[in-house]
Amino acid sequence: MTASKGYAALSAQSPLAPFSFERRTPGATEIAVEILYCGVCHSDLHMARNEWGQSIYPLVPGHEIVGRVIQAGSSATRFKVGEIAAIGVIVDSCRACAPCKGGEEHYCEQGATLTYAAKDRVDGSITMGGYSNNYVVDERFAHKVPANLDLAGVAPLLCAGITTYSPLRHWKVGPGMKVGIVGLGGLGHMGLKFAHSFGAHTVQLTTSLKKRDDAIKLGADEVLLSTDASEMAKHARSFDFILDTASAPHDLDPYLSLLKQDGTLALVGLPEKPPAVSVFSLITKRLSIAGSMIGGMPETQEMLDYCGKHNITAEVEVIPANKVNDAFERMLNQDVKYRFVLDMQTL
Ligand code: NAP
Ligand code: ZN
Ligand code: ZN
User: Fold this and answer.
1) What single-letter DSSP state applies at residue 162?
2) What CATH superfamily classification does 2-159+314-346 receive?
3) Is the pTM of this model over 0.85?
4) Nearest listed ligand to the Cα of residue 97
5) Which of 190, 200, 226, 297 is deepest in the core (most CB within 10 A)?
6) What is the atom index within ligand 1 of the atom nearest the CA of 271?
7) For ion ligand 3, residues whose CB falls within 5 Å
8) Ligand 2 center to residue 27 CA distance, Å?
9) Which sequence spans correspond to the domains of the chain?
10) CA-CA distances (angstroms) from residue 143 to 138, 189, 275?
11) Which sign, positive or negative, has the C-alpha torsion 335, 53, 10, 162?
């Protein structure tokens, strides 16, 4: 066992506080990494505050992890001590069901093991996330990081990156399509970068007028203030696909009104309350509302390699670990540009 430290929520009401715990010694196919950077995802906030009703305390959040391998098990072949490894939202799965065999471990029929607040398949303990100084994971659930990328900017790719890359690929976003991204936060700004990079006419939808210039710099062809009904009306029936990353409860109908016949609104944001939808909005244009969750191991590596090739990383504000509660508050106030990343060397 290795003595480990990090930041944990002890209850849904308490702020994150310093916390000590133990991690196991890596097994034969496992690696131990010393964590360098961990991104702050809005899911960490939802989970720390038990907004989805599935939290287990003490809860060490963090699933956007970049670290250096400090130990490798006797049968580990993909990583050597000293190499950089990245870990995302899931750290294990049954490995036997059809989704697992097809490289879609995140849709494991037995339930994938989440990086934190989940029952560990190896030792039955509760997983503790990346707001900490180390992590132990089977090398099959770790990723290679392209050498040309800034490591702090890579960390958010492990959740915000793959969660937007995967649906944009699944719905074949590319040239000739008009695509909307709802919300310019951690996920949204990665969705914007990818949709632009894939060649779509990309429109950023935001509730924050002050983000307009940034959205253009990040690749938006147009920016649409979603709270302005007359601006929205000018774009009615013109979008092929919209990716909704909003973290707070919101009405879907204004976004559905933007879609062309047979268009799709794909939800990735996970507000604590389910949305109300007018069926009339759907039937009158044969629309689809869909959902998507992170991505599997092969697609996550594909996304990282794509980012290496196209020099794509997240826009990050790197902060010391003891500022994590401030980061949560600023995220709630839609004041993030565009992902907080904890420098775990400051622990
Ligand atoms: P974030 O950085 O806080 O960004 C969320 C953005 O949503 C805000 O910046 C804001 O953008 C927009 N927003 C907030 N309230 C809104 C409202 N009432 N109406 C419209 N837009 C609103 O959060 P994040 O880390 O990107 O995460 C976003 C959501 O995705 C969270 O719910 C998270 O749990 C979920 N998530 C899902 C998956 C998955 O696999 N599906 C993976 C990771 C995260 P503007 O200021 O531009 O309006
Ligand atoms: Zn996340
Ligand atoms: Zn499985």
Assistant:
1) H
2) Medium-chain alcohol dehydrogenases, catalytic domain (3.90.180.10)
3) yes
4) 3
5) 190
6) 32
7) 93-94, 97, 100, 108
8) 26
9) 2-159+314-346, 161-291
10) 11, 22, 34
11) negative
CATH code, 161-291: 3.40.50.720
Q: Provide the phi-psi class of 184: left if phi over 0, else alpha when psi is between -120 and 50, else beta.
A: beta
Residues with CB under 6 A from ligand 1: 41-43, 46, 159-160, 163, 182-188, 206-208, 211, 245-248, 250, 268-271, 293-294, 331, 334, 336
How many CB atoms are located within 10 Å of the residue 290 CB? 14
List C-alpha distances in Å: 159 to 5, 89, 121, 303.
Answer: 22, 6, 21, 11
Q: Which residues of 131-142 are buried (b: 16+ CB within 10 A; e: fewer)?
A: bbbbbbbbbebb
Under a CB-based contact definition with an 8 Å cutoff, are residues 212 and 206 in contact?
yes
**In testing the pocket of ligand 1, which one of 42, 265, 267 has its CB within 8 Å of the most ligand atoms?**
42
Q: How confident is the model at residue 322 (pLDDT cuts 50, 70, 90)?
A: very high
Report the distance separating Cα 215 and Cα 224, nearest Å: 10
Chain position carrying tokens 């400051």: 346
Q: Per-residue pLDDT tens for 11-45?
A: 999 999 999 999 999 999 999 999 999 999 999 99
Ligand nearest to the CA of 211: 1
